[in-house]
Amino acid sequence: MNLDRQQYEKVARSLDGESVELRADEQACAADVRRLENELDALFDCAAPAASMASARRRMLDELSAATRRRRRFKLAARLAPLAAAAMIVLALGLWRSRPPGQPSNTPELADIGNAAYFALVHQTNDDAALTVLQNEMEIFAAELANSSVSAVDLHMDSIQDQIDSFWLDEPYRSL
Amino acid sequence: MEMQTERLREDIAAAQAGVAQGFESLLATFGPRLYGFFLKATGNHHDAEDLLGEISVRLVRSIADYDDRGRFEPWLFRIAANMVRDSRRHNRCRPGVISLSGQEEDGEPFMPPAPPQGDRLEAREDAEKLAAALKSLDEDTSRMIMLRHYGQMSFKEIAALFAMPLGTVLARVHRGLGTLRRLMATSDES
User: Are residues A86 and A164 in the same domain?
Assistant: First the structure.
């Protein structure tokens, strides 16, 4: 049975279920392929060991749990991004307002607030791009503080801290 | 048949929604055939088991990419065929490990499989003969034949996977099946 490539193509389309009119030699080829496949089918069958199936199931469920956790973190990060930005604005505004010129510097306390804010953000978002921006902002901020003279008395640290806390503990955040 | 398709559609939808039951059902349906495919393709139980675990993980990662308009089996076995190809490439680059301590690579002591009896012995001999016969074919033809059986893939789908003309695929499968049958018959006689 010598068929050319076009004929084999016709036979293949017929075996795939298309309605194709085959010549006698093409029909013989289709029948031969069917027969050979049927004959060998039983030899191909083999049972999967229960241990292999159980191991695959375990790996699959582990991956599913990990994927669910990743999705949850991503959603959280996406929803926290505006809150993080708002907290940074409050922090910057608070510091700007409470910086009377010519007073002694209170850099350590300010740096603590900055660190706390940054710490909170790092633990609430896994968005690398957002963290890079925030880290850059904090570095600029720290450099400005190092060069400034800020009064410890007029900083109203508690008030600033309260404002930041109120953003983190606000309803949208708590509902996450 | 229609009910089975409907059931499969429900399992896929559940899996795409992240429901564990959907994935478990898909694994129960296709796991044995995937294992068979991997076993025949690698000729090694450990590799077959490892690939079955790996494809279960990939199923979770890529089920969202599955388009319901296509057929699920060819999609799944396309991933399986690519994994076998990658695994073969990887093994060719990796130097062989010979254990001198009577232990396998994972540290477990090597235990020879229990000797099969009766029908099981015959079935095992047939499976070994088939594995040897498949090895005598070229890799592509061997994989095409396995994808026909385990993946229930059409010739058109196989042609797309191997980027070959439809007629060429059937010619190779036909020739390969003939060779397999001849080799199996020869080994039966001897």
Answer: yes
Supply the pTM of this predicted model: 0.62
CB A9 within 8 Å of CB A26: no
**Hey, which residues 72-111 in chain B have their CB within 8 Å of chain A?**
none
Is ipTM beyond 0.90?
no
Minimal Cα distance from B182: which residue of A? A36
Asked if the Cβ–Cβ distance from A63 to B52 is below 8 Å, we say: no
Q: Note whether residue A134 is domain-resident.
A: yes
Mutation to test the B interface, candidates A43, A62, A72, most B Cβ within 10 Å: A43
Distance separating alpha carbons of residues A135 and A158, to the nearest angstrom: 24
Q: Is residue A55 part of a domain?
A: no
CB contact B39 to A (< 8 Å): yes
Q: How many domains does chain A have?
A: 2
Q: Give A98-155 pLDDT, tens digit per residue.
A: 666 655 545 545 555 556 556 555 555 555 655 665 666 666 666 666 665 555 444 5
Minimum CA–CA partner of A4 in chain B: B167
Structural domains in chain B plus CATH codes: 1-93 (1.10.1740.10), 119-190 (1.10.10.10)
Answer whether residue A63 is part of any domain: no
Residue A31 sits in which domain range? 5-44
Instruction: Tell whether A159 and A106 lie within a shared domain.
Output: yes
The verdict on a CB contact (< 8 Å) between B56 and A60 is: yes
Please check whether residue A39 lies inside any domain of the structure: yes
For residues A76 and A142, is the Cβ–Cβ distance under 8 A? no
DSSP-derived letter for residue B128 is: H
Nearest CB to B181; choose among A39, A41, A46? A39
Instruction: Tell me the C-alpha to C-alpha distance, in Å, between residue B92 and each of B35, B88, B106, B143.
Output: 22, 6, 20, 18
Burial of A166 (C-beta count, 10 Å sphere; 0-12/13-18/19+): exposed
Residue that the structure tokens 């969202």 belong to? B64
Residues in chain A: 176
pLDDT, tens digit (0-9, with 9 covering 90-100), for B74-125: 899 999 999 998 887 777 665 554 444 444 444 444 444 444 455 556 666 7
